[in-house]
Structure prediction request, 90 residues.
Amino acid sequence: MYTTRRSLSAASGKLLSAMKAREATCKDLMPSLPASLHKFFGASTSALQTMEEFARRQPELLEEIIRRKEKNPTAAGVLATTAEPKKPQQ
Prediction:
C-alpha cells in the first residue's frame, strides 16, 4: 500500500514552538494572576492543541497560510487575486 508521509516544515515547527513557549509562559504566570484572567491565559493550551491538530491534519494548508502571512504580514481578510475586478458569473 502506498502512503505519503507529511511532515512539518521549518515554518510550521517554528510556529508550534512559539505557541508552546507562549503556553509555558502562561502556565508560569497563572499562579500570580487574578482569577478573572485565568480563563484568558488558559486559552493558550486549547489554542496550541487546536493548532497541533490542524498541523497534523492539513500540513500543506498550514504551510500555505504561513507563507502568505510572511509574504504580506499586514494583510487581513479577503485579498484580491486579480489586477482588475471581474464580473460575477451568472
